[in-house]
Amino acid sequence: MRQLFDSNTWQEIFQSISKNKVRTFLTMIGVFVGIYIYVGLSGASKGLDNGFERQFETVAMNTMFAWAQSTSMPYDGFKTGRQLQLKVGDIDVLQNRIPEIEYITPRNAKGVFGDTPGVVVRGTKSGNYAVYGDFPVFTRIATKKIYDGGRFINDEDIEQTRKVCVIGERTQKELFDKEEDPIGGYIRIDNIYFQVIGVHKFTPGGGFESDSDIFIPFTTYRKLYNTGDNIGWLTMAAYDDADVIQVEKDVKSVLKSIHRVHPDDERAFGSFNLGEIFNRIMGFSNGLTFLSLIVGIATILAGIIGIGNILLISVKERTKELGVRRALGATPSEVRNQIIIESLFLTLLAGIIGIIIGALTLKGIDMATQGTDFPYANPTVPIPLVLGALGLMIILGTLIGLIPAQRAVSIRPIDALREE
Amino acid sequence: MIEIKDLHKSYKMGSNSLHVLKGINFSVDKGELVAIMGSSGSGKSTLLNILGMLDVADTGDYTLDGVPIKDMNETKAAQYRNKFLGFVFQSFNLINYKSAMENVALPLYYQRMPRKERQEKALKYLDQVGLKEWATHLPSELSGGQKQRVAIARAMAAEPKVLLADEPTGALDSTTSYEVMDLIQKINDEGNTILVVTHEEDIAHMCKRIVHLKDGVIVEDKKVKQVRASAYV
Asked: With an 8 Å Cβ cutoff, are A324 and B93 in contact?
């Protein structure tokens, strides 16, 4: 211990490692690469993790969608292949039968799944855009950021079947002049005039929506396109503590009973569960984090063993020097400690350089991917992981140093000096 | 200064053992300059190693400056070597990545002497061997004679009670050998006790006493008239 804090010891060690630059460099490169990979990989996986999370942040994680398809089994007198249609009435039944549903709202859309989009005209400008019929509760499930001065559809719009719409950023750009305020302006959707009440900010990752979508009140949509009680699909959010997968199953079985579909008919209704997808992606990124931990630690381990190996060779090479030191009065423990401290110092130095360069690399990748769609954000390595790696290096560096140190001590000075 | 009684040493060479020292009795007083002579295999190096605590005898007593040397562990031996003994080797054994001054300062490092003091003292001893200007040079930049003089300075830096020189001129040409012997004589003139192992007659006669070893026993132990090496330089 005394030796560890003695400036003389460090002078000796600095001299010994700086006078053998090639050896020092080769020794350090293993640990350096190890910690570099460790930091780089775990930072990158954290970045992916953050990136995924950012992509999903606009949608509630317990969100699911359900839609009708056609039956694949005959049941209750109906033949197979019957086309099903969700109705507005289904919503009340679902809400009554499944208490785990927090929000449920129907949605109709035109121009999303291959059908013709709405023709939208304003003065001399026109375009084709997807049109959605929505309830205000939709914003509870998927946040819609509305630009200053605007709003989303509200309950009165629904009640009074108002001809109002929320347009997308791109729609605004294409239909309005740059300095024009779209709020309060009028556009013609399939020959009906609508007043613009808001512009929504598009956030990527929310599924099939785009930055040109137009949202109108559900009731207005029904009138405009004559959809009656039909609805395109259901969007639901379960309570936070609910088991989303179970709720998804319940929703489907309730729908089957309403629509008189065979309980085992898996194809009658389609559903999509964001929570499940999210869990799967998170599981993937957790796996990636774990993998990077394993790979990193294994590489560090290999690097440290490399240090031990090279020090072992260097002890052999320095047999004579160590013999001279012993003859001049170095005690075995002084020789041993010198080698261990050398090992430790090299390990730590290489490790710290690796951490710094790894962090710089992560920073570089972060800057390069900024503002792109690539799911990668703020790649960081948690401090405990870095400290853990450093701790591991201290322990292993010492342990591995013990081997060459013991070798050095076991050489008797007389044998060391005799070696010509 | 040195008292040796009935010293035996044998080496195991596979199944048979080699009896190298067969009862050595021998004493050295303070200020003596003793040459230990003998052909190779006579045991002279073994004797010097035992005297230098680099090796231990099987039986027999060894007293150095009144301190009995026995049952020593390595740590203790290292401390005694540092305090009592200076070594000069045939192949110099300087540390090749340290400058002349750092080499001389090395035993002082193991005495835990502060760096400044260490360097001052090292310079002083380098000056004594006439190599002050070479203080910052690496051993590879020095000639054989210079290297040996650095080694002698290193041995003397710790102010040992006894200087042990194992064939100090073995790797040097005769002119340089005499220079080194001249230095050893001068150090001896200051009252230091020195033992020189050699197999060269002329070197031996530059000492004050010659001990002949043959097959592990002392066959002759005589005082001689010292030939000053300076006469040849």
From this structure: yes
Of A320, A327, A331, the CB nearest to B79: A331
CATH tag, B2-93+161-231:
3.40.50.300
Picking from A323, A329, A414, the nearest residue to B107 by CB comes out as A329
Say if the Cβ atoms of B81 and A329 lie within 8 Å: yes
Q: How far is B118 from chain A (nearest CA, A)?
A: 11
A323/B95 Cβ within 8 A = no
Nearest to A328 among B55, B106, B115 (CB): B106
Tell whether A21 is within 8 A of chain B (Cβ). no
What global pTM score does this model have? 0.67
Interface membership of A16 toward B (CB under 8 Å): yes
pLDDT, tens digit, 9 for 90 and up, residues B27-55? 999 999 999 998 888 888 888 888 988 88
What is the per-residue pLDDT across A148-172, written as a single tens digit (0 to 9) for each? 778 999 999 999 999 999 998 888 8
- Give strand pairing partners of A372: none
Query: How near does any CA of chain B get to the CA of A382, in Å?
Result: 42
Give the domain ranges of chain B: 2-93+161-231
A410 — contact with chain B (CB < 8 Å)? no
Task: Select from A12, A328, A331 the Cβ nearest to the Cβ of B74.
Answer: A331
Interface predicted TM-score (ipTM): 0.88
